[in-house]
Amino acid sequence: MTELKGALIGCGFFAVNQMHAWNDVRGARVVAICDRDPERLKIVGDQFGIDRRYSDAEALFADGGFDFVDIATTVQSHRTLVEMAARNKVPAICQKPFAKTLSDAKAMVEACRNAGIPLMVHENFRWQTPIQAVRKALEEDGIGTPFWGRFSFRSAYDVFSGQPYLAEGERFIIEDLGIHTLDIARYILGDVRSLTARTKRVNPGIKGEDVATILLDHENGATSVVDVSYATRLSREPFPETLIELDGSEGTIRLTQGYRLEITNARGTITTDVSPKLLSWASRPWHNIQESVYAIQQHWVDKLERGAEHSTSGADNLKTFALVEAAYDSAVRGQTIDVGAMLR
C-alpha cells in the first residue's frame, strides 16, 4: 500500500491531537505544516519532526508534494483554504464548524465537486466508541424501530481556559458543541425535517449562548431532544461525554455516564462497558474525543484509497450545518423552522 502524504494547515489548540493521530494512522503521514504564527509552527514542527514549514498557504500549495490537506484553522479562513485546495486539485479535510454561513458551505462543497476532489468535514464525535456502539445496537435491531431520543451534553467544564476565543463570539454553544450533538442525532435517528430551539446565556463573562435545548422532528417520524450546556454543575463532572436515550418499539437504549451502554428488550437487560481506548498520547478526560480523531482520520485514508464517499463528506455535513443555522434562527424568531427549505 502506497503511503499518502498530507499537509496540515493550522497548528493551534486542537491540531496537536490531529498530528498525534496522523502518527498512528495506517497508510498516511503529514509531511508539511503551515501556520501564520511562527511560534506555533516551531512548537508543532519540532514536536513532530516536520521540516517543511510554511507561514503562507499559497506557498505550501505552490510547492506541493502532498496528497491531501488537513485544514485545522478557525472558521474565518475555511472557505478560502478549501477553495484553494480545490483550485490545486488536493483532497481536503476541513475542521468544524465548516463555514461562517450555509451559503459559504454550499459554495465550498460545489468548488470541490467541480474540481473532482473529496471533501470531508472533521466531524469526529460520531466516531467516538460509545456513539458507534449505540449505532451498532440499532443496526442489530436491538430495540426495534426508534421513535424517541435524547442526546445530551451538560457540563460545567471550563472550556475557555484552553480556547479563550470561545468567550468572544456572538455564537457559542450551538456552533461549537451543539453542532456535534446535532450530527450525532442525525447519525443515529436520520435526517431532520424541522426543529424548534431555545437558548440562554448563563455565564455573564461570555458573549454567546452557553445553554441550548432543541426539539427535532426527524424525517422517519421519530422525535428527539438535543440539549447542551456549559452551565450545569453536577456531583460528577461528565465532560466530555455525550449521553443518549433511545426508546424503540421493542426496547430502549441508554448510554449513561461512565460509558455504560444498557439495552433493554423482551430478552431482558444487557449492560456493556463501551469505554474508549486510552491511546498512548491521549489524556483523560479528553481520551474519548482524542480516540475519535484517530478514528475519523483512519476513515479518511481508507475511503480515499478506495475512492469511496466519506461518512462526514462536505455534502453530508451541509445537513448538519443547516441544523445549526436553523437552531439559531428558531431561537431568535421563537418559531419552528423547516430545515429542508434551508437546503433547497
UniProtKB/TrEMBL annotation:
Residues 131-254 form the GFO/IDH/MocA-like oxidoreductase domain. The keyword Plastid does not apply. Residues 6-121 form the Gfo/Idh/MocA-like oxidoreductase N-terminal domain. Pfam families: GFO_IDH_MocA, GFO_IDH_MocA_C3. InterPro entries: Gfo/Idh/MocA-like_OxRdtase_N (IPR000683), Gfo/Idh/MocA_oxidoreduct (IPR051317), GFO_IDH_MocA-like_dom (IPR055170), NAD(P)-bd_dom_sf (IPR036291). The keyword Cell inner membrane does not apply. It comes from the Bacteria. Gene3D superfamilies: Dihydrodipicolinate Reductase, domain 2 (3.30.360.10), NAD(P)-binding Rossmann-like Domain (3.40.50.720). Keywords: Plasmid. PANTHER family: CONSERVED EXPRESSED OXIDOREDUCTASE (EUROFUNG), OXIDOREDUCTASE. This is Gfo/Idh/MocA family oxidoreductase. It comes from Rhizobium indicum.
